[in-house]
């Protein structure tokens, strides 16, 4: 079977987008972000204004921003509750000034995260101030402004902690320990307030850049886990087991990678300060791939079966479980929802590696979708230029030496008529 494969650089292919962080795409750090050029390519080639787009692993919410700038509607799902905040901040269209974003660092009512381990991440001196300013955010700030104010507030909270704020993963590094030690010997409180205003100006400018692009008023449905912080509901949204309640025109997504999946852990500090209790965050982590309890029987792919034998020969039960759970999870999602997609399914994935075995994720997904009745349209192979996932020597999901993905593949499948 001849495959339609093209080698491209999406940054050049979609020239109207100036950078991966234009508008509000770069408001807050998010690991393995879906770059806007890929989303814009699918929107331009396969959709019309007013179409309903769907991203079941929405992450940062890239699709929502691109949909609003191109007059498409969207449905976004994600396990991570921070999607609520990121989408609301990124799509903010109301008039906004610096004065609107003022906070009280001496607020009388404190807020303490419901996490026994919070003292591990912040020295008591920083906690005394952070609990007051977060008390203001939780109890005195207008709900409409909370998502925007949370962006600079979370940035200073990460900086004034033992976490390394330069990487998305929650990690207590020697650099961070030295940073805290040095801060405590200075007028750190004045520095904290100055940094808040510096980050606030950056946030305001990004939102104004987005507003200058004249976004459309669209229907954007966000379905993410919550505990009553951003919605009235307390629920866990596991995309693997969710089912669409409406028809969508195009599904475009970048699912969690086989190599890097601990997104909840990466945001545990942020979620704690936003008001999510520790036991809820722990429950969220249990729903991440590869921790979902999903066995064989969901996937139909010859390549999957052949590579499973190679992985089994490694005699490493955890790696074999990671492999089988990952693909059976994605297959279950597709089995549950592909019939609700009217025309196009687009998956942006990379050929991950398990030990010395390169795993062509796009090929396995393509074969499963062909089994479900879909036809291969094209695959675009993009060389990774500047993007990196978690910068670690050992993969936290597998405990083995990490090996980065050199390319990413946009798999386009079309519904057979």
CATH class of the largest domain: Alpha Beta
Which H/E pattern describes the elements? EHHEHEHHHHHHEEEEHHHHHEEEHEE
Helix content: 25-40%
- What is the terminal-to-terminal distance? 20 Å
Structural write-up:
The chain has helices spanning 10-13, 36-46, 62-70, 82-90, 118-121, 124-139, 146-159, 174-184, 188-212, 263-266, 268-274, 278-286, 302-312, 317-337, 361-371, and strands spanning 5-8, 52-55, 73-78, 220-224, 226-227, 234-235, 248-253, 341-349, 352-354, 357-359, 374-383, 407-415. It has two domains: 5-12 and 38-86 and 221-415, Rossmann fold, CATH 3.40.50.150; 98-212, no CATH class. The chain is built from 15 helices and twelve strands. The strands form three sheets. The chain has an eight-stranded mixed sheet, with helices on both faces. Strands 5-6 form a two-stranded antiparallel sheet. Strand 2 (52-55), helix 3 and strand 3 form a beta-alpha-beta unit. 40% of the residues lie in helices and 15% in strands. It has 417 residues and is of the alpha/beta class.
């Amino acid at each position: 079977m001849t495959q339609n494969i093209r080698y491209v650089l999406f940054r050049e292919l979609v020239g109207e987008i100036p950078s991966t962080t234009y508008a509000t795409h770069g408001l807050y750090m998010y690991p393995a972000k879906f770059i806007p050029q890929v989303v814009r390519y699918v929107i331009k080639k396969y959709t019309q204004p007013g179409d309903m787009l769907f991203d079941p692993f929405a992450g940062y919410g890239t699709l929502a921003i691109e949909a609003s700038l191109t007059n498409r509607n969207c449905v976004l799902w994600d396990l991570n509750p921070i999607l609520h905040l990121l989408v609301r901040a990124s799509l903010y269209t109301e008039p906004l000034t610096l004065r609107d974003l003022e906070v009280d660092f001496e607020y009388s009512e404190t807020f303490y995260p419901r996490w026994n381990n919070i003292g591990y991440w912040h020295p008591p001196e920083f906690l005394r101030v952070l609990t007051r300013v977060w008390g203001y955010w939780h109890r005195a700030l207008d709900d409409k402004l909370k998502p925007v104010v949370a962006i600079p507030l979370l940035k200073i909270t990460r900086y004034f902690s033992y976490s390394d704020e330069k990487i998305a993963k929650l990690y207590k590094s020697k650099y961070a320990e030295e940073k805290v030690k040095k801060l405590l010997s200075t007028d750190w409180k004045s520095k904290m307030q100055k940094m808040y205003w510096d980050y606030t100006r950056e946030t305001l400018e990004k939102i104004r850049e987005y507003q200058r692009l004249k976004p459309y008023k669209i229907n954007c449905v966000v379905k993410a886990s919550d505990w009553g912080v951003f919605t009235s509901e307390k629920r866990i949204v596991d995309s693997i087991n969710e089912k669409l309640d409406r028809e969508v025109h195009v599904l475009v997504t970048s699912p969690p990678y086989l190599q890097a999946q601990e997104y909840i852990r990466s945001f545990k500090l942020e979620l704690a300060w936003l008001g999510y209790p520790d036991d809820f965050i722990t429950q969220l982590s249990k729903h991440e791939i590869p921790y979902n309890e999903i066995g064989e029987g969901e996937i139909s792919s010859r390549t999957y079966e052949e590579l499973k034998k190679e992985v089994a020969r490694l005699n490493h039960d955890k790696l074999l479980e990671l492999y089988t759970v990952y693909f059976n999870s994605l297959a279950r999602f597709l089995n549950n929802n592909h019939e609700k997609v009217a025309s196009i399914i687009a998956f942006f994935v990379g050929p991950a590696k398990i030990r010395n075995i390169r795993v062509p994720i796009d090929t396995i997904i393509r074969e499963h979708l062909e089994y479900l009745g879909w036809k291969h349209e094209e695959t675009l192979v993009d060389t990774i230029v500047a993007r990196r996932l978690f910068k670690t020597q050992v993969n936290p999901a597998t405990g083995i030496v990490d090996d980065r993905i050199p390319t990413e593949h946009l798999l386009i499948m079309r519904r057979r008529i």
